[in-house]
Specification:
Layout: E1 6-10, E2 16-20, H1 21-24, E3 32-41, H2 44-57, E4 64-68, E5 82-88, H3 91-98, H4 101-113, E6 114-122
Antiparallel strand pairs: 1-2, 3-5, 3-6, 4-5
Helix pairs in contact: 2-4
Length: about 120
């Protein structure tokens, strides 16, 4: 591996990855991705309420949907019911939406309607 072409990218957990230098060169901000994995629906009515509130909560936020419950195949780990992937220009903007009053109200219904895992990950 050419050491000049690749630079380490450190993560808060202490792990690191080697990323091509041209990807991170000059980057002041990096995209942030929220990955929602629905493991099990527990109350379809609550989940329907969540679905009706989650979309409108994104108004005014710089969010881009990439995956919204598309066909999927689990290659490792337990089966999932569905996956959503959205991106924001920065981690701060992702947190601003996730912690917004509108999404906080919506996610209360998600908590009652299904078991999810949600991961916020910084892109390159």
């Amino acid at each position: 591996m050419n050491a000049e072409r690749y630079r380490p990218l450190d993560f808060p957990s202490g792990s690191a990855a080697r990323v091509p230098a041209e990807i991170i060169a000059g980057s002041e901000t990096m995209a942030a991705y929220l990955i929602f994995t629905r493991d099990k629906t527990t109350d379809a009515g609550e989940l329907a309420t969540y679905s009706g509130l989650a979309g409108p909560s994104m108004a005014g936020h710089a969010v881009t949907p990439h995956v919204v419950y598309g066909k999927h195949e689990v290659l490792e780990g337990p089966e999932v019911e569905g996956v959503v992937v959205v991106s924001f220009p920065t981690v701060e903007e992702a947190r601003a939406w996730y912690d917004s009053p509108a999404y906080t109200a919506a996610r209360a219904h998600r908590f009652k309607g299904a078991d999810y895992r949600v991961v916020l990950v910084q892109g390159v």
